[in-house]
């Protein structure tokens, strides 16, 4: 029996996540036959919904997985669309943990199909995060090793061609039945251990830079004169300072908002005159101000009501000039939002540098 029950043992209606599966006793003998029992760490990349599934209500599911498998299962923190699940322990414990996760995902697929018209059941899919330096051995000469793994396990295995962002790791996607996935993981573990054995005592090819999922940007919205940030399914009131700045900016903006006409009596327009403020931003942080395809700078323009121009890069200069035009309130809010993006960019760079001063 491979299960490690909770203290007091399972009740009559409570099934072990591991021992309740008919294929698991057979898996135990296969693991034992291989004589593979060393400590190893494997990382998985999961979406939020998948993470929620293995955590379970009040953490009950992951608690069972830890206790029944004997493996350490850690889930990365952070407001990220993706999370890293790290499984550490003797290889037999790792295989048990993978089996529990695979069977849980299969159960989720079955439940999702109960109200679906689909006739074919999709496979269980897991994504491993593997150092790029080990992917060559996993693929093999001319793809021979990965082909062998596919044929012997019945699982589909794909090694991503590109490394995960800001890392030296690649995603290895495994799809199939839970039993096929476990056999596939076992063979991948063997390859990884062989690589470590061959390179033991050899000069390292370079430190592995682990993949860290990018935090989800927190959008700011304005409604009813109040600023809010979106966290999950809730709108959380933003600091009073930002709300007041926004209210002032919208009251005093000298620029005609889209869809509105100019005042009927221009001479009576009491808006403060527009002024200009300039600031400089390091070149390596300008991207976090602009955003992908200009999304962030456009958000800042819309929120603040200010006109914002970013000068082109100058040869030999490490800085870019930003010109902000508007009322004092417009400019203050634009500066606040730009500084918030700079703070986020510096914090992100600090994290990617491993906590070293960039």
Secondary-structure element pattern, one letter each? HEHHEEHEHHEEHEEEHEHHEEH
- Mean pLDDT over the full residue set: 75
Distance between the termini: 52 Å
Low-confidence stretches: 1-15, 22-35, 254-270
Q: Strand arrangement, largest sheet? A: 2-3-1-4-6-5
Form type = elongated
User: Strand tally, please?
Assistant: 12
Main beta sheet strand tally, sense and closure: 6 strands, antiparallel
Beta-strand fraction estimate? 15-25%
Helix run count: 11
Task: Please give a structural write-up.
The chain has helices at residues 22-34, 48-55, 60-69, 91-113, 132-139, 144-153, 178-199, 240-252, 286-290, 295-304, 328-352; strands spanning 39-47, 72-75, 82-90, 124-131, 156-159, 169-176, 220-223, 226-231, 234-237, 275-282, 307-310, 319-326. α6 packs antiparallel against α7 and α10 (295-304) packs antiparallel against α11 (328-352). By secondary structure, the chain is of the alpha+beta class. Strands 2-3-1-4-6-5 form a six-stranded antiparallel beta sheet. It has a three-stranded antiparallel beta sheet with strand order 7-8-9. The protein contains eleven helices and twelve strands. Mean pLDDT is 75; it is low at 1-15, 22-35 and 254-270. 41% of the residues lie in helices and 21% in strands.
Question: Summed up, what is this model?
Answer:
The chain is 41% helix and 21% strand. With 358 residues, it is α+β, with helices and mostly antiparallel strands.
